[in-house]
Amino acid sequence: xxxxxxxxxxxxxxxxxxxxxxxxxxxxxxxxxxxxxxxxxxxxxxxxxxxxxxxxxxxxxxxxxxxxxxxxxxxxxxxxxxxxxxxxxxxxxxxxxxxxxxxxxxxxxxxxxxxxxxxxxxxxxxxxxxxxx
Length: 133
Fold this sequence. Notes:
DUF5655 domain-containing protein; Aspartate Aminotransferase, domain 1; globular; alpha+beta; DUF5655; 6 strands
């Protein structure tokens, strides 16, 4: 039993995931959105790193700024923002404080279209600036 636990821990420590793996099996619309989001976030600053994990893609400097989870019908963005400090949050967002989810950040934005992404952009920028960008 101990050996199985060690094997799982070793797999987690050495597994390498890619952006492309997260795109596998997704519709062209989701792929297009994912590339647009990737380009926007990495274009904010040359120090922002893209770190694909098993269930999401993290964008970070010293800490995660945005975690992007690709689903079949939408992309969930988890931003490192305090939802209680956001006045008049958009309808496509929700407070994830105390709720289990992949990635880090308590402010979730559900992106299903380019219009939703335009709504999300100022909040992505706010999360980046809040972490010292």
